[in-house]
């Protein structure tokens, strides 16, 4: 494994776009900070990463990213506390997951130090871009794509790793109504569903559009064989509260091993909430909705944090969730964001100070 | 549906690279012709396509192609006969399939005339690039990708459609040894396997690399649920001859509806070969290999034309196919290439003269 032999090279942008940004009214992932991390794989190895001005990418029309979908990504957030200290949340897990995704897509794995040191160098250069407002953060997008050329359907010989940053507000506005999918699927057994591979997302857009036309915001994916088991949502793992028990499906080669998900499981256990990680059927959720034992459903993911679900559609029927006073969703969301933003202790050692 | 109101605009390249190309020793998809077709989707509509010099593409790092795999493509070939007339093979089927793929990936469909008239204009400008040598052709790559920006996991608002061309020799050299896959899968029920979507190919690279390390060249995909049914290969549909019957699986939402496949079915029927389009199990193929009734296996696709399979591996065992004198593979390959290259009658009306 290569390790960095020297400091990350930094080429600063001559101008800044920061004054054009309204930090009070941020949308999600639409404005980008002044710099990015850039790193190339050539001649069988990853070259040293550099912090460079955010700039357009130029590729040959035959670059394999355009043809064969060889790309993986991550999603992280940086937070700033009252003292202007910068924090990440479990960043090494994103780095490791990027490499798990890369391996499945036949993309060469990145040395961890390139990712971690590169990311820290970038955040220090663009630290003014990290919003301090509650609910806002600097969304961080590490990604790798095939930049080598050729029409032969085989892995590329060159790759590009970039980290770009977007100061962002919340991903969803308000509660989310979801559709439990009965026809389309997100992933196959033995496929790439567990990887954060670009192609997994494109395949969800059309079924999601159909759901949006019917008045839902998101699809809840089920297994491709029986459509009986609840899997996950577009960019969130799913939690279901029946009576006082919090249930989430096990991860598999079809489901992304979410960092928010596994943190929520630990946080809930620490708070004394009964947690079950087990397969959960649509049938069970519908039955619970009908008999009143279904108390909450929420999605969990870096972009959306914890996103409460207001109701779901299944088989032509709509089911509303109750409006509770004290929800697991709101207490767990407060716990996790307090840890992320350095507003409370971090008994788990998840917070990572950038220095 | 938009139709073209005027001639396709042509911007010619000032120089040509054609003298650098050794047309006697062409590899596959590595050298590109002087021009390409370029067409942009903006503000809710496809703009008129133009023939322009082959040139690099410049994109923002947040362009959705890098993140969410929104891309589809086609593969076609142009042939030149002794009179320098240019021919395509069933091109409208590629155009229609591109739109079928686009729809599933939430990419706006292209007006057919943009594709057809654009392609013809490009081929006329680059007609010197069409090889005449037997077994060579101009490989044509139409593709559409998300060029709109943003980190929100939703369809892009801008797309780019390009057609690039590569004078090419054969895709495989010699016979192919394949591995019947028992663990990994290419596609899900309700997924995007029937679409020529970029992500379908990236997902195949790693399992194919593992197969190559074991001494095979290609993977034969099986269904993701039981791994009992033969589906297709990386970029080819699969035909199996047991005794004198030619068998191929039915298409489905997991399998690409290959133009070569459907042409081979018709050609074989016309030649009096008994053809069965039905599900075929690995078990049946292994049993036929053991009792000597398995005569041939071959892949069929535009890039590889008809590619005979020399043997297959399954469950740790290797099975060789017999070396026959007169194979279906060779007679059908001659039939289809003679039609494609205007060396014989075309009773089916598949050949398409570019004029
Ligand atoms: C498909 C999918 N599931 C779940 C998640 C949640 O994962 P994490 O909590 O690590 O962000 C994401 C987003 O990252 C995702 O894309
Ligand atoms: C997955 C897959 N199957 C089959 C084929 C064969 O299709 P066609 O004969 O239309 O080229 C291709 C290549 O186009 C392919 O990519």
Mind explaining what this structure looks like?
Two copies of one chain form a homodimer. Chain A is an alpha+beta fold and 355 residues long. Chain A folds into two domains: 9-168, 2-Layer Sandwich (D-amino Acid Aminotransferase, Chain A, domain 1), CATH 3.30.470; 176-340, D-amino Acid Aminotransferase, subunit A, domain 2 (D-amino Acid Aminotransferase, Chain A, domain 2, Alpha-Beta Barrel). Chain A has seven helices and 20 strands. The first copy, chain A, has helices at 64-68, 91-104, 112-125, 198-213, 259-270, 282-291, 328-340, and strands at residues 9-10, 35-42, 45-46, 50-53, 57-59, 71-73, 76-80, 86-89, 137-146, 159-168, 176-180, 218-222, 230-233, 237-242, 245-248, 275-277, 294-301, 305-314, 317-320, 351-354. In chain A, the strands form two sheets. In chain A, strands 1, 2, 3, 4, 6, 7, 8, 9, 10 and 20 form a ten-stranded mixed β-sheet that branches. In chain A, α5 links the parallel β15 and β16 (275-277). In chain A, α5 (259-270) packs across α7. Chain A starts with 8 loop residues before the first strand and ends with a strand. The mean pLDDT of chain A is 96. The interface between A and B is large, with 74 and 74 residues. Bound molecules: pyridoxal-5'-phosphate (PLP) (2 copies).
Task: Sketch the topology of chain A as an H/E string, one letter per element.
Answer: EEEEEHEEEHHEEEHEEEEHEHEEEHE
Number of domains of chain A: 2
Total strands of chain A: the figure is 20
Output mean pLDDT of chain A.
96
Q: CATH superfamily membership of the largest domain in chain A, which one?
A: D-amino Acid Aminotransferase, subunit A, domain 2
Query: What is the makeup of the main sheet of chain A?
Result: 10 strands, mixed
CATH topology of the largest domain in chain A: D-amino Acid Aminotransferase, Chain A, domain 2
Oligomer: homodimer
The ligands found in this model are: pyridoxal-5'-phosphate
Runs of chain A with pLDDT <50, length 5+? none
Overall form of chain A: globular
Distance between the amino and carboxyl termini of chain A: 24 Å
CATH architecture of the largest domain in chain A: Alpha-Beta Barrel
Task: Tell me which protein chains meet in the greatest interface and how many residues each side has.
Answer: A-B, 74 and 74 residues
